[in-house]
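Practice problem: predict the structure.
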Amino acid sequence: MSIAENIAQVRANMAEACRQAGRAPEEVTLVGASKMNDAQACRDAIAAGIDALGENRVQEMTSKLAEHAYDGAPLHFIGHLQRNKVKQVVGKVALIQSVGSTELLDEIEKVAAARDLVQDILLEVNIGREEAKSGFAPEEVFAAAEHALACPHVRVQGLMTIPPADADRETNMRYFQEVRALYVDINAKLFHNELKCLSMGMSADYADAIACGATMVRVGTAIFGKRNYNI
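Answer:
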């Protein structure tokens, strides 16, 4: 199937998940996770009406920016971001979804201030408390949001999470529900219920994420096909 056909199928699945949850399909943004796909694949996804594209790797993102791969759609950074690469991302993307430490927050604030802009971000929640994964532990999210509010050149738009890859479906949904509860809490207590973005769910579980309240899903394989990690 073509990228356009895959997007149409994902959209249909999203609409059904929304219907079952009593939600409107327009409430959920579809981000195409375009890691290891070339500029033409990104253009094809944009032509097919993808809401946004998301990249995991700074070098790949920079290369495809030079090829105008993302023209016509917002670009998000969705992978682990090292502090020494923040300068290559701030101001180049509409949203940094993976802000998982106060040190990274401070670096984004520093670079954004120097460029006289405000960078939209999501706070990443390490809901499975995985040692090898970045992100704030659930009990750290509220303080992280308060820290971000003190950064005038950073604007929190919501939360993002990636549950452990080995979690079964029931556990996965529990994780989604826990992150949504965190989102609702900080939204009410710190952001006057103005946050709109709860990014969770990927190719294998985006329907479940929508059922649990996701307003944004990040879909790669189901749109672009299996990645070739040997190239």
